[in-house]
User: What shape does this take?
Amino acid sequence: MDDQQPNNVKDLLVELKDASELMIDLAYAAVFFNDEKVANEVTQLEERSNGYLRRLRSIAMLAARSPEDAEGMAGVLWIADAIQKIGDAASDVARVIAARLGIPEDLRPDLRHADEMTARVRVREDAPMTGRSLRDLSLPIETGMWVMAIRSGMSWQFDPGPDDIVSAGDVLLVRGPEEGVNEVRQLAGAPPMPVAPDEDVPALSELDRAVDILVEMKDLAEAAVGLAYSSILFNNRALAAQVASLEARSDFLQDELESWVLRAAPEARHVDDLRGLIRLASASESICDAAREMTWYVEHGEPLHPVVQMALEETEETSAETIVQPGSPADGHSLAELRIETETGMFVLAIQRGARWTYRPRAAFALAAGDRLISIGPEEGEEELIALCGEQPVPVDA
Assistant: This one.
C-alpha cells in the first residue's frame, strides 16, 4: 500500500476496504504458519487503518454543509466504522500468535485446509516465474491463486502490486483453491506437494470437532464480508439478508465451539493451547458481526451516499453477479469441472437457486440454468466468468 495518505472520502474508503481484507488473509496465514512477522504486519495495518479512519471522519465533517450532506456522510461513516471493526477483529486473530496464546500444533494443518488453501513456496533458480512481474504472471487468472506477500531475504513485502518482480530465492505467500497450489509451485520451479498418506489418522475426538467448527467459522466470516460488500455494491437486500443468516449461524457455532473446547480440555496436552481456539472463534464471530452491521442501510432500504459504491467499484477485487444461461458452458457442470477459480481467478461466494442460497459452494456443486452467482476476483476474470455463464452481469438497479 502507498504510504501517502489519501485526501478524499472515496480513496480513503478504498484503502480501508483493501486493508481490512488483507488483514483477514494475513491474520489467518499467521496462525496457519505460526509466523510472528506476519502477525506483526497485521498490527501495523491496523494502526494505518486507524489513521485512515481518523482522516475520513475529519473530511466527512468538513464536507457536511447542510443537513442533507450530514445525513449522506453519516452513512459513509457507518460503513467505514464497520470496515474498521472487521480489521480490528482480524488483528485479534493475529494476536493468537503475537500473544503466544497457542493452538494445538497437531491441528494446524487442518486449519490450513479450509475452502481456500494458504501456502508458501520458494522460487527456485531458473524457474519460469523468475524475473517476471505479477502482472505478467497473472496468477489469479492462470492458477486461481493470489499473492498476499513476498519475502526477499529477511524482508517481507505485504500486498505486492502488479509491477513487483519475482526473483530467485523469494518466498511467496499465496491463497486460493487447493488445485492451484501445484500450478504455482511448478511456475516457481518447486516440486509438487506430497500426496497425503492414505492411512487413517487417529481421531482427536472432541478437539477435532472443535477445529471443524473453527474452520467453518473462518469460512463464514470470509463469506459474510464478501457478501456484505456485494450487497452494498448491488444495493441488494437479498444479499444483505444472507449476511444476517451467516451471522446468526456464526453465533451458534461460537457457542458450540466453546462447549466442545471445554469437553476437550481433559485430553489436551497443553490446556493453554485451547485459549487460542476460543480467541479465534470469538474474532471470527466479530468479523461476521461487523459484516452484518455494514449491510444495515441496504437491509433497511436506506439510501447510501454514491461515494460508497464508487469506492467499492475501484477496489482491488471486483464483485460480479451473473446468471447461468441454458446451454452455456456452466449449465450442468460442477464447479470442479469448470475450474472456475483457476480458469477465471474468480471465487464464488454464493449461489442462489430459486429462494435458496448456498454460501461458499463446494467443488462438487453442479450449476444449473437460472442459478445466480455472486463472485469476487480480478476485473479481467469477470469477462471469462461471463463467458462460462453465457450472461452479462445483472444491472446494479435490477
User: Anything to note?
Assistant: The first strand starts at residue 117 and ends at 122. DSSP finds 15 helices and eight strands in the chain.
